[in-house]
Design goal:
heterodimer; A: about 240 residues; alpha/beta; Rossmann fold; 8 helices; B: about 800 residues; alpha+beta; 3 domains
Chain lengths: ~240, ~800
């Protein structure tokens, strides 16, 4: 399969006046198209920072990052925005829906930043995405009128609406009860089954086991990169 | 926590945030200072009753003529006599007369305004003489010994405070008069009098059209309202109009307080404008402080949620938040009382310096008990308004959700809506307030720079009043004119000299006229015009341009047909076809012969530069044909600026003294000074509104910026979300600018018409003037502030990496 992401010696250093904190050091990682990857590790280990770098939400302090064949470590903010818009779909722990926009408007938001999509196309893509997450009947609702699980499903719809190359999910079930968490995880499984590349940060072992591949991060370094066997996946799903 | 620990907690919170505290206290102090100052100003000058036993019921009765109210000696004596017989609303209904009197002692002659009064006058004003006695009604009887009561000022200046002044003689208008009393310095009713003489004005034996005018006043019966008194006087005046259509057409009268009368027709509008302006400012201050407190409450959302989770009742949390606003408003209130007290003191000093006359005796611009009570009420109200809403709003959310990370920093939908409403309100109030205050400042600027239609800077003026007894003969008056002109022309400092009854910028006699050939019917509604007598060389000396026809010359003699020269607006108003030369009109009241128009000159402004006066037409008549006793001498100096000519005042005074000892010069000043004195009150109000405009600009702009930028700061996380979803910087700017334009548009759509309506309301009183420039500049400035308030916070938010913006709290 095609390599979608390639990180080479990637590092991230946070500097204050007196202290330098090495959040990530010498990260080397390849993610292939269609892979379902989970990143886990204890709090403060750097997994969310890694996801931010993967999602171009932050800039690295060194190393190389190739996304879909393009070197993206040193591109300008406009180009980064364009890549985020077309190549990456985000699902956040806190949903991050915009409270003043309806469900449909929230899902359409990334599409509104694309000049190559007409209004009709946008409408069709939004409807399709909402149907995939079974939220098409709530298009005119506001986030505050939805449950947590429903809000996260809308967030997933927003992430997949633009057919991105990869979905980055940061603790997608962290704010949900077990029932809703299961619904969202099933949704991600389904998307993966349909061919989506997913990279998920989680410290829920059951959730991590649903991925094909588990990366463990500790003190800013990748300490383990393992393939999950199918039995484990079935056990996690069960 | 008990109430003291709540206060202590609020106090510590404020101390811990000195910048926030300083900002909120500054904003609130500005609003409260303006409010308390204006309240005390209005109270002290216009609203508080006169300081007499019956002060609340003392009223002036003034003539309304052609819709305009004339104050002071405005009611014809026979009309007053008729009214006095029939009015029912008053305990006292009386009149006094005001006249310029020549006072001569053995060594000097001076001219002052004298009051001719009855016993009632002193009684209702609770007068107590410093020396001697007051005047009685017997003093006014025919054959009584001429007596006078002197003011403290005159006693000091003419008699050096001689304790034995009683019984001494003084020539009043050449008549020996015995001094029977001296008033204390504090006595000024209804204005600063210098000498009081017995009221002898009568309509008996005088042709109605030639009778004098008197000032009418009264004390209302306790049960009578102003509305009833006004209805009565209007009804009686309407009957007089029917009975004497020629003299009383277009006339009515009004009953109002002495304070209102002293401020003129526009008092109610002025008060309303001031109250509106100050109300808007206070509202702006409240919104700004409320918004700051609300932002703080939002920032402290997590702390509030923790308190709630730990079991604090909502009322306790609301009270804790309320104490902050109470403390801020109390500190601001105290500062505001102190600052407005100092400001009022300064205003009193400024008024004394700027006004050409003593301010009315009832003016008491200080912080009174009423002001303090008002300050406390206003402060507590603002504390409640600015505190309760943010506190309720901040404690109304789901505290459990706040405790979870999910809602951190993000505005709820209702909070977002509230922010929009606040921004729109700020724009509406700011726009209306700025249009109003700048419209007022602009109006005065326009009025001060107006063209009076004559030369101004090189003119020096004095007024003289020839003694009645010696100058009964018209020829003798003409002789005086010639003497004064030729004597002054001989002085090297003087380029030319002329005479006029009314100087530019001064009130001219506004009279009913009849145009020849127009039938005014049985109930005539006559047109009106200023009537100004001038010497023949007046137009040349004052550089008034002849537009057609001729100026006065030797053909206009005392025994030749009467002639007049009219201004262009006279022609425009009454001779639409412009063909005016040779046409005739006459003044109704004096009922003299027809005046033939022989020339047209440019417009000359008489009175204050209000739109009403600017539009008033003027008919100049020849002083050679109708010589008057009271005239102003206009001395044109060789120097371009009359104020730079050293000793001119002494030269003119000594020449007038030499020619007629009993006609001393008074009102000796440059024409520019005369005009500026006339406009002093207007300029004072303008300066006040300049302060208002500045304060409103500071509050409005800082408020709009604060609210708008705060809204955007609270949306930092949203900016992070949008960027995560692919929005680039231009998309983010575009999004917020579109949002800003929407709020700005709604605000301007409401605020601009509201501001224009307020300006239009004041335009009628010439207190404000609209201008297309202002209507464009003010909204443009507000728009600029909005865009800055969007640009800088968005720029700051964009400097954060999207991941930091997403975590922003």
């Amino acid at each position: 399969m095609k390599t979608l992401i390639k990180l080479a010696n990637l590092k991230k250093v946070f500097s204050t006046d007196e202290v330098e904190t090495h959040a990530l050091s010498d990260i080397n990682l390849q993610v292939r198209q269609g892979e379902y990857l989970s990143i886990s590790g204890p709090s403060g280990c750097g997994k969310s920072t890694l996801l931010s770098l993967l999602g171009l939400l932050d800039t690295s302090s060194g190393g190389n990052y190739t996304l879909n064949g393009h070197e993206v470590a040193d591109i300008n903010s406009k180009q980064r925005a364009a890549i985020r818009n077309k190549e990456i779909g985000f699902v956040f722990q806190s949903f991050n829906l915009i409270s003043e926009l309806t469900v449909a408007e929230n899902v359409a938001l990334p599409l509104t930043y694309r000049k190559d999509i007409s209004k009709t196309q946008r409408h069709e893509m939004v409807t399709a995405a909402l149907e995939k997450v079974d939220m098409a009947h709530r298009t005119k609702h506001y986030p505050s009128q939805l449950s947590g699980g429903q809000q996260q499903r809308v967030a997933v719809a927003r992430a997949i609406a633009g057919n991105p190359s990869i979905i980055l999910a940061d603790e997608p079930t962290g704010n949900l009860d077990s029932k809703n968490a299961e619904l969202v995880m099933s949704l991600l499984d389904k998307l993966h089954a349909e061919g989506a590349t997913i990279c998920m940060v989680t410290h829920d072992p059951r959730g991590a086991k649903r991925a094909e591949r588990i990366i463990e991060v500790f003190d800013g370094r990748i300490v383990s990169d393992s393939i999950v066997n199918s039995d484990d996946i079935e056990e996690a799903v069960a | 926590m008990n109430i003291f620990s709540d206060i202590n907690f609020a106090f510590r919170t404020l101390i811990k945030n000195p910048k926030f505290t300083a900002l909120t206290v500054f904003v609130m102090t500005t609003g409260l200072t303006l409010c308390i100052y204006m309240f005390s100003f209005i109270q002290g000058t216009m609203v508080a009753p006169l300081p007499f036993k019956d002060g609340e019921r003392i009223r002036a009765v003034d003539m309304i003529y052609n819709g305009m109210t004339y104050q002071g000696t405005s009611i014809r004596v026979p009309d007053f006599d008729d009214l006095k017989k029939r009015v029912q609303s008053y305990e006292v209904f009386d009149a006094y007369d005001i006249g310029t009197v020549n006072l001569s002692t053995n060594d000097r002659a001076v001219k002052y305004t004298g009051h001719y009064v009855t016993e009632n006058f002193f009684k209702i004003s609770e007068a107590k003489p410093l020396l001697g006695r007051l005047l009685t009604n017997d003093d006014g009887l025919s054959g009584a010994e001429p007596v006078a009561v002197l003011s403290h000022t005159l006693w000091q200046s003419l008699f050096a405070g001689d304790a034995d002044v009683l019984g001494k003689k003084l020539r009043v208008n050449t008549k020996p008069t015995t001094i029977v009393g001296v008033m204390p310095d504090s006595y000024q009713f209804p204005d600063a009098g210098r000498i009081w003489l017995p009221y002898t004005t009568t309509g008996v034996g005088v042709e109605r059209s030639k009778s004098d005018y008197v000032a009418v006043y009264g004390v209302l019966k306790p049960e009578v309202t102003d509305e009833q008194a006004n209805a009565e006087i209007k009804s009686l005046m309407a009957e007089l109009e029917v009975k004497y259509p020629k003299l009383n057409s277009n006339t009515s009268a009004r009953v109002w307080t002495i304070q209102e009368a002293s401020m003129g027709d526009g008092t109610a509008v002025i008060i309303l404008a001031m109250e509106l302006a100050v109300g808007f400012i206070l509202l702006l201050a409240c919104i700004n402080v409320g918004n700051l407190l609300f932002s703080r409450a939002t920032e402290k959302g997590k702390e509030t949620a923790i308190r709630t989770a730990l079991g604090a009742p909502r009322s306790t949390i609301v009270m804790q938040m309320m104490w902050e606003s109470v403390l801020i408003c109390t500190i601001s209130g105290v500062l505001a009382v102190l600052i407005s007290g100092l400001w009022l003191e300064q205003s009193n000093r400024d008024l004394l310096e700027a006004f050409p006359f003593d301010p009315p005796f009832w003016w008491n611009m200080v912080i009174t008990e009423t002001s303090i009570v008002a300050a406390i009420v206003i402060t507590l109200t603002t504390a409640f308004v600015t505190g309760i809403l943010p506190a309720l709003k901040a404690t109304s959310g789901d505290f459990n959700a706040t405790l979870r990370d999910g809602t951190r920093g993000a505005q709820s939908k209702s909070a977002g809506r509230l922010s929009k409403v606040i921004v729109v309100s700020e724009v509406v109030l700011s726009c209306a307030l700025l249009l109003l205050s700048t419209g007022m400042v602009y109006s005065v600027h326009q009025q001060n720079s107006i063209d009076y239609g004559t030369t101004i800077e090189n003119i020096f003026t004095v007024r003289v009043g020839l003694p009645e007894a010696e100058y009964k003969s018209l020829e003798k008056r003409q002789q005086y004119y010639q003497n004064i002109i030729s004597s002054l022309q001989a002085k090297p400092e003087v380029a030319d000299v002329s005479l006029t009854r009314t100087l530019p910028g001064n009130w001219a006699s506004y009279e009913n006229i009849a145009i020849d050939g127009v039938d005014y019917g049985k109930k005539p509604q006559y047109p009106s015009s200023n009537s100004v007598g001038v010497a023949h060389n007046y137009f040349q000396v004052m550089e008034v341009n002849l537009k057609s026809g001729r100026v006065f010359d030797s053909r206009d003699k005392i025994d030749s047909p009467l002639t007049a020269i009219v201004t262009e607006n006279f022609v425009k108003k009454y001779y639409k076809d412009g063909d005016v030369l040779g046409k005739r009109f006459k003044f109704i009241e004096t009922d003299q012969d027809w005046y033939t128009i022989v020339g047209v000159v440019n417009n000359v402004l008489h009175g204050q530069p209000t739109s009403l006066n600017i539009e008033k037409p003027t008919a100049f008549v020849s002083l050679q044909q109708t010589p008057k006793r009271f005239v102003s001498i206009t001395v044109k100096t060789v120097a371009a600026d009359a104020s730079t000519v050293v000793g001119l005042s002494d030269i003119v005074t000594s020449v007038t003294q030499k020619i007629e000892r009993d006609a001393p010069a008074y009102d000796v000043k440059t024409l520019r000074a005369s005009i500026e004195e006339r406009n002093a009150g207007m300029n004072f109000v303008s300066e006040l509104f300049l302060v208002f405009a500045a304060a409103s600009m500071v509050l409005a702009f800082s408020g709009i910026y604060g609210v708008m930028s705060n809204t955007i700061v609270q949306k930092t996380q949203e900016i992070g979300i949008r960027r995560a979803l692919g929005a680039d910087e231009s998309d983010i700017y575009k999004h917020f600018i579109i949002q800003g334009i929407k709020q700005l548009s709604i605000g301007l759509v409401i605020g601009v018409p509201m501001g224009i309506a307020l300006v239009k309301m004041l335009e009628q009183s010439s207190l404000a003037q609209g201008s297309l420039m202002l209507y464009i500049v003010i909204p443009a400035l507000i728009s600029a502030v909005i865009f800055m308030a969007i640009y800088y916070p968005v720029q700051r938010a964009l400097k954060l990496e999207p991941c930091s913006a997403l975590r922003y709290e």
